[in-house]
Amino acid sequence: MSNEATVHGHSEVTTHEVHHDDHHGHHHQDTFITKYIFSQDHKMIGKQFLITGIVWAIIGGLFSVLFRLQLGFPDQSFPILEDLLGSKWAAGGKIQPEFYYALVTMHGTVLVFFVLTAGLSGTFANLLIPLQIGARDMASPFMNMLSYWFFFLASIVMISSLFVQTGPASGGWTSYPPLSALGDASEGSKAGMDLWLVSMALFVVSSLLGGLNYIATILNMRTKGMTMTRLPLTIWALFFTAVLGVLSFPVLFSGFILLLFDRHAGTSFYLSDIFLASTQKPLPNEGGSAILYQHLFWFLGHPEVYIILLPAMGMASEILSTNSRKPIFGYMAMIASLFAICVLAFLVWAHHMFVTGLNPFLGSFFVLLTLLIAVPSAIKVFNWLTTIWRGNIRFTPGMLFALGFISMFISGGLTGIFLGNSTLDIHLHDTMFVIAHFHIVMGVASFFGMFAGVYHWFPKMFGRYLNNTLAYIHFWITLVGAYLIFWPMHYEGLAGMPRRYLDVSGWVSFNQFDGLNRFISIVSIIVFAVQLLFVFNFFYSIFKGRRVKTPNPWGSNTLEWTTPINPGHGNWEGEIPEVHRWAYDYGKDGRDFIPQTEPVSATESKH
Amino acid sequence: METQIVMEQRKRIHPAKFTLWVGIGSIVMMFAGLTSAYIVKRSQPSWVSLNEIPRIFWYSTLVILASSVTMQMALRSFKQRERPQYRRLILITGLLGALFIMMQWFGFKAIWASGTTFAGAGAGQFLYIIAGLHALHVLAGIIALIIMSFRAFSTKRRNYNPVPVEVMSTYWHFVDILWLYLLVFFMMLT
């Protein structure tokens, strides 16, 4: 540390400079292992998160294709499934009930946590935070590396649970007790459930290590001139995402600890007065409350949907502004609405529990707070639309996906108003309406945000472009397909068709949906195939894509485009650039764009 | 000397310390989750409360308070470059921490012997889990202390950077205060 003061004799020494000129002194040679595997470079860790997330997305998506086969064609058999999956899970080419529930459970767990939490915010927080705030790396690159490896461990444990004899966890992605607490209650509540809990605990550790780092980095390591109100909205969104994660995941963790004790130590936090049909025995547990778990779970569970959604919002804001060549509309309102969403996220968890016997009076408060979220959401939508309004729009693939994100967010958000009402929820709870709502607003919308981010920042990640033709095919089929899959589910849900059921053909009233279900299943297979096209494009372009020739291919203002085309560890070769303005000076004073590093000139108009 | 200049020049908190504070926030949320579960359960029928808190928890409280004092003294002697005293003090802190965990263990055994086992979902079961998790956090602190004392006894490298010691002491005081909170919580709401 002793030479730093001499290096930085001038008065404005910021912490990151102190930190990193340290690294600068000794350029050690990277081996394959330190560069690609146990890397502490935030950009490489981001890519590791992304590629692991892609692998998980393929697995999780495949699960949905399998159970859609069952839902669309309940009376047909597919002998190939027996060949692929064995006679235990797909006897006679029909998906067996235990397997079906395992598929549904793992689809939810994988997509919510492993893809849209780790794969989305893990990727882009790692990639973008140091690059956009002007830091050489995270506050603690080592913790950052640990964060990825805990995620990797969690992935290994979760994958291994697919191969145990009794199958993976199958009590739904929420793992409600008593089903999840009693090994005798179902096949999926045995070893698979334990592995699920261990994997999720590791996942929580990973996400906390990451979140701590993101917060510390954003607040402490910004370059000179990068005040909080000059941060790009991506960074604000990732900041609130990290805050949500750091405050809510520990609560989920405490719920899991109690569940583990109920499973193995004989406590009865969640168990009371149970007669188990499978063993024909009454259980000794008394005094527990299954609802307690739901409170602890949804205290995370609701912020979790914003953990998934906020990064997508931030990236969409940035990409929309860049590709409309217009400043973002209402920058401060965007931050304020992110903050409002972040606060409200903690105050609405019981709207998942309206039908648990929750006091209706208490429920009315949760209705109010839930509907309040419509306000910041509407502000954001309004600002996005006014940002692109009369803009000079460039329809890059990233831009298309950002526009698709807005479309999904609006359509899915509107049905949230139905579900947020405790009275309507009595009818709609646990129907396909809920599936349609959250897949559109949270699942597909966030996926669109993620795709927008991948297409937009791929040149920064790999120094090459993705193939545009494949990208446009990917976009249009995914957009149309997503609506074709999820829109009809609203009608099924309004008619009362329950979610999670293996086969609804026993109810005459749902027979009218036979054709619709087949249709949804076929479309989902097509959409899944198109995602594989994206995966092909992704890996092909890493090695063979068109090379990026200019450091700033999109004409963007933010700092990541001031780095070399293929930045090394440390990001900037010389000094870290200084920031003089906000990130959104597009189309100002007759200039197309003014990067953040350019000083404000005396003749410039005010914004 | 020059380190001092850098320390004065930077106005922002050191990232490692800041990370610790955010981490403390998340640990607090975990215990807040558990203690609110306790409060919710307590208002429900068939709640079983504890007869009394074992006396040994009072002594263990004294031990962890003492260890906080020695930690603070260790930090001071580190800053004053009194290396032998610093070594002694962090060893004592670690030993007091270990003693604390042992006493907690005996406290659990006393509760267990009085008939409160894992069966049920009352104050006793919550206490095992909440105080047990707290002891795990103390254990993590002891492991960190062991690593620090290896560094302190190393003759190869001399380190005058106070940040790790400051981070350590903040964490140690945190687990101390956390235990005080938990003890008061259990006393008031058995």
From TrEMBL, chain A:
<dbReference type="InterPro" id="IPR023616">
    <property type="entry name" value="Cyt_c_oxase-like_su1_dom"/>
</dbReference>
<feature type="transmembrane region" description="Helical">
    <location>
        <begin position="361"/>
        <end position="379"/>
    </location>
</feature>
<feature type="compositionally biased region" description="Basic and acidic residues">
    <location>
        <begin position="7"/>
        <end position="26"/>
    </location>
</feature>
<feature type="transmembrane region" description="Helical">
    <location>
        <begin position="99"/>
        <end position="125"/>
    </location>
</feature>
<feature type="transmembrane region" description="Helical">
    <location>
        <begin position="49"/>
        <end position="69"/>
    </location>
</feature>
<dbReference type="GO" id="GO:0016020">
    <property type="term" value="C:membrane"/>
</dbReference>
<dbReference type="GO" id="GO:0020037">
    <property type="term" value="F:heme binding"/>
</dbReference>
<feature type="transmembrane region" description="Helical">
    <location>
        <begin position="400"/>
        <end position="420"/>
    </location>
</feature>
<dbReference type="GO" id="GO:0015990">
    <property type="term" value="P:electron transport coupled proton transport"/>
</dbReference>
<feature type="transmembrane region" description="Helical">
    <location>
        <begin position="519"/>
        <end position="540"/>
    </location>
</feature>
<feature type="transmembrane region" description="Helical">
    <location>
        <begin position="432"/>
        <end position="458"/>
    </location>
</feature>
<feature type="transmembrane region" description="Helical">
    <location>
        <begin position="296"/>
        <end position="316"/>
    </location>
</feature>
<feature type="region of interest" description="Disordered">
    <location>
        <begin position="1"/>
        <end position="26"/>
    </location>
</feature>
<dbReference type="InterPro" id="IPR000883">
    <property type="entry name" value="Cyt_C_Oxase_1"/>
</dbReference>
<keyword id="KW-0472">Membrane</keyword>
<feature type="transmembrane region" description="Helical">
    <location>
        <begin position="328"/>
        <end position="349"/>
    </location>
</feature>
<keyword id="KW-1133">Transmembrane helix</keyword>
<dbReference type="Pfam" id="PF00115">
    <property type="entry name" value="COX1"/>
</dbReference>
<dbReference type="GO" id="GO:0022904">
    <property type="term" value="P:respiratory electron transport chain"/>
</dbReference>
<comment type="similarity">
    <text>Belongs to the heme-copper respiratory oxidase family.</text>
</comment>
<feature type="transmembrane region" description="Helical">
    <location>
        <begin position="233"/>
        <end position="261"/>
    </location>
</feature>
<keyword id="KW-0812">Transmembrane</keyword>
Automatic annotation (TrEMBL), chain B:
<dbReference type="GO" id="GO:0004129">
    <property type="term" value="F:cytochrome-c oxidase activity"/>
</dbReference>
<feature type="transmembrane region" description="Helical">
    <location>
        <begin position="87"/>
        <end position="106"/>
    </location>
</feature>
<keyword id="KW-0812">Transmembrane</keyword>
<dbReference type="GO" id="GO:0019646">
    <property type="term" value="P:aerobic electron transport chain"/>
</dbReference>
<dbReference type="InterPro" id="IPR000298">
    <property type="entry name" value="Cyt_c_oxidase-like_su3"/>
</dbReference>
<protein>
    <submittedName>
        <fullName>Cytochrome c oxidase subunit III</fullName>
    </submittedName>
</protein>
<dbReference type="InterPro" id="IPR024791">
    <property type="entry name" value="Cyt_c/ubiquinol_Oxase_su3"/>
</dbReference>
<comment type="similarity">
    <text>Belongs to the cytochrome c oxidase subunit 3 family.</text>
</comment>
<feature type="domain" description="Heme-copper oxidase subunit III family profile">
    <location>
        <begin position="17"/>
        <end position="190"/>
    </location>
</feature>
<keyword id="KW-0472">Membrane</keyword>
<feature type="transmembrane region" description="Helical">
    <location>
        <begin position="126"/>
        <end position="150"/>
    </location>
</feature>
<dbReference type="InterPro" id="IPR013833">
    <property type="entry name" value="Cyt_c_oxidase_su3_a-hlx"/>
</dbReference>
<keyword id="KW-1133">Transmembrane helix</keyword>
<dbReference type="GO" id="GO:0005886">
    <property type="term" value="C:plasma membrane"/>
</dbReference>
<feature type="transmembrane region" description="Helical">
    <location>
        <begin position="56"/>
        <end position="75"/>
    </location>
</feature>
<feature type="transmembrane region" description="Helical">
    <location>
        <begin position="20"/>
        <end position="40"/>
    </location>
</feature>
<dbReference type="InterPro" id="IPR035973">
    <property type="entry name" value="Cyt_c_oxidase_su3-like_sf"/>
</dbReference>
<feature type="transmembrane region" description="Helical">
    <location>
        <begin position="171"/>
        <end position="189"/>
    </location>
</feature>
<dbReference type="Pfam" id="PF00510">
    <property type="entry name" value="COX3"/>
</dbReference>
